[in-house]
């Protein structure tokens, strides 16, 4: 997904409470906080910086968007933390000559991939860049979220200069797919009015068994799945699954 000029707008919508939940889950799940960690599809670096501040010394932030990485550099400077940045496509980063003890990927990032093959390619890339015994920790939205919660969902937000409208719709004839219509209204002083910007984002997910199959095919073992940021093992009606899986020795 190419955020382009939208990067700063999305960064304004940073949900601190949700990121505190992701941080708490990561801290409780990571087995070796002293090892090198990669935040995959880390965007503007919000969670990567929080992980760094929580005591994980060697954190890298990986994202496809140079605009998002530019924001990550800005946020890291403001937080006075060292945050190496990597620009790349999560489906293909074979040329990255680094391995990690932990790789994380949160906030729907995997749900923006177009098909199962893209998910599998990403899992394989993660596996190849993990040290022996390393962890891959990630979350995805579930079919409950795409099929029951999102269709008809609306959210509006504004401040003095920006208004945001988010509407979600099911995709006819496509199972477990949802489209988000995102509209921003930006106040521009030179015209004393608002400029409208709009994007359509598509998310898709799969049954739990599909994710487990793809992880196994990529080489992962000992797959543990929870819900509600790791607070429950009841995954049947969950809107988001959390995966903690390990690369064999």
Net shape = globular
What is the CATH architecture annotation of the largest domain?
Answer: 3-Layer(aba) Sandwich
Q: Taking all residues together, what is the mean pLDDT?
A: 92
Ends distance: 34 Å
| CATH-level-4 superfamily name of the largest domain | Vaccinia Virus protein VP39
Main sheet: strands, sense, barrel: 7 strands, mixed
Helix content: 25-40%
CATH topology of the largest domain: Rossmann fold
- Contiguous low-pLDDT stretches (5 residues minimum) are none
Q: CATH class of the largest domain, anyone? A: Alpha Beta
Beta-strand portion reads 25-35%
Return the structural class. alpha/beta
Order of helices and strands, N to C? Answer: HHEHEHEEHEHEEEEHEE
Please, how many domains? 2
Number of strands: 11
Radius of gyration: 18 Å
Order of strands in the sheet with most strands? 3-2-1-4-5-11-10
Number of helices: 7
In short:
By secondary structure, this protein is α/β, with parallel strands linked by helices. It has two domains: 4-142 and 206-247, Vaccinia Virus protein VP39 (Rossmann fold); 145-204, S-adenosyl-L-methionine-dependent methyltransferases (N-terminal domain of TfIIb, Single Sheet), CATH 2.20.25. The chain has helices at 7-12, 16-29, 46-53, 66-79, 116-128, 143-149, 208-218, and strands spanning 37-40, 59-63, 85-87, 100-105, 130-141, 154-158, 162-170, 177-188, 193-204, 220-227, 240-247.
